[in-house]
Amino acid sequence: MKVALVYDRLNKLGGAEQVLLAFHKLFPQADWYTSVWDPARTPFTRNWRVHSSWLSHVPLLRTHHEWFPFLMPFIFEAYDFSSYDLVISIGSAECKGIITDPSTFHLHYCLTPTRYLYSHASEYLTNPLYRFVGRYLRAWDQVAATRPDLMLAISTQVKKRIKKYYNREAAILFPPVDTQKFTSINSSLTSSILHLPSSYFLVVSRLVPYKRIDTLVRVFNQLPKDNLVIVGIGSELRKLRTLAHSNIHFAGLVDDQTLVRYYQHCQAYLQANEEDFGLSMVEAGLAGRPVIAYGVGGACDIVVPGVTGLLIPGNDVQSFISAVDKFRSLSFDSGACRKNALSFAREIWQAKLKRVLKPYVQATTI
User: No. of H helices and E strands in the chain?
Assistant: First the structure.
């Protein structure tokens, strides 16, 4: 069976990396198709069989694809998938708009309907380019959403968006999580190895505005006896450092072993923004730690209130201060946190995906 995998763009590291790696592991001989490919920024793809457009050969466009959103429909429609038995598109933008033959089964694994056209359109309206081309792109996207033979959603929130914006039903298949790195690292090492305070709350995130890390900084500015550790980098780093008091520690980028230890020794993991899924919340659970999260989006699929953490109704400063105060009076079983998180293991995802494909694709390799 000949398989093709399609992703919107392979030009930066992001939250979908584990999803892509899991698909590659399941279909190691598959061809990959994308609009823009930058192997220097996505080193995990260097040995993949990647087909990309001419945009990849223009340095400025390779890193600033967002300047030319109107080109993406033409790029994906131009690819020829006539020789493939199975095509799986994975993404949140234009990749679902590929054109396949009737004999080719096209599954779309939807990370979310295109954010800048629908659920978060207001955040992009300040950009004149998106205002100008938005109507055309939305009309094309409505047609593109009819092309996959089957859609899967990564969360309950995404399932609801697919129904709302595309009027399609979609089953839920939670994203795969690599659980192995949490079993291969010595959990007995203490937080002193990390040069951290003995007690701290944790957030792991890209430091960009919509992640609302500034809210958590303001929370702990008002909780001087509690410590907050922030793992990650991004455009907001300088602003956040200026805003933060001395009980807030910036760890920057860290390797997997160090990250696991940060999770293992924190009091709780904090999630302030709405996530389509929320990989870091699952990783905290794998380390046996509870989560305090804004109770919308993917957090509702991951956190079991009162068992593996707290879901709170607001994501303002006072809501999180109240949640931290409530957390101090509660206790959470690390075993329960880990058991819940293990339900998102990559092996479970793979088995479920095979069951989904079996009625549609006749092949011994699935």
Answer: 13, 13
Are the C-beta atoms of residues 15 and 35 closer than 8 Å to each other?
no
Reported as a single tens digit per residue, the pLDDT across 343-354 is 999 999 999 999
d(CA 309, CA 311): 7
What residues contact residue 172 under an 8 Å CB cut-off, 6+ apart? 152, 153, 154, 155, 156, 158, 159, 301
pLDDT digits (tens, 9 = 90+) for 237-251: 999 999 999 999 999
Residue 81 tokens, joined: 């998938």
* Candidates 1.20.120.450, 3.40.50.2000, 3.40.50.300, 1.10.8.60; CATH matching 180-342: 3.40.50.2000
**Domain formed by 3-176+346-357, architecture:** 3-Layer(aba) Sandwich (3.40)
Model-wide pTM > 0.70 = yes
Tell me what pLDDT residue 365 has: 58
